[in-house]
């Protein structure tokens, strides 16, 4: 009798689980079909529209006429969504004039498909995970960058540098801080 009761309980449990899984599969299929019908694009954080909050590091760069080359490079390297996330990030942002100091053809070469890995490495060398104001830097301080490299901060007579590049301005953002610099930082 115990075996029969156990067998009936096992069969009932199996039947309930099977029905539950079938209903879950139907609901998931219906949801997928609804999303396909609505043509909902799948996008990252950069697709969020928010005109009320403080701008993030990407929006800050996009809004600067002095950073069009940097913005093009970030888009080409596929880093827009990453840098639009919560962070916090400290971004050392070279100006267009800083990119112009590179040997002729360097930027154009880095924007080519076959050089995307190099471009990404260089851009990640400009990013530190954490929010550091210019006032927090100390002379000789070493920072580990996203690409695994290190930069060295310099502080002398009130001027702050990163690997010798001057910090021209610092802009707080919703997900960190952007330090405008006058040179492109190149990893070793």
Question: Topology of this structure?
Answer:
Elements: H1 2-38, H2 57-62, H3 68-76, H4 80-84, E1 89-94, H5 96-100, H6 106-110, H7 116-124, E2 127-129, E3 142-144, E4 150-156, E5 159-162, E6 165-173, E7 176-181
Parallel strand pairs: 1-7
Antiparallel strand pairs: 1-2, 3-4, 4-5, 5-6, 6-7
Protein name: Fasciclin domain-containing protein
Organism: Adhaeribacter terreus
Keywords: Signal
Describe the structure.
The protein has 188 residues and is α+β, with helices and mostly antiparallel strands. It has two domains: 1-40; 54-181, Roll (FAS1 domain), CATH 2.30.180.10. Helices cover 40% and strands 20% of the residues. The chain contains seven helices and seven strands. The chain has a seven-stranded mixed sheet with strand order 2-1-7-6-5-4-3. β6 (165-173) and β7 (176-181) form a beta hairpin. The protein is globular. The relative contact order is 0.14. Mean pLDDT is 80; it is low at 4-43. Keywords: Signal. Residues 1-20 form the signal peptide. This is Fasciclin domain-containing protein. Residues 54-185 form the FAS1 domain. InterPro entries: Adhesion/Biosynth-related (IPR050904), FAS1_dom_sf (IPR036378), FAS1_domain (IPR000782).
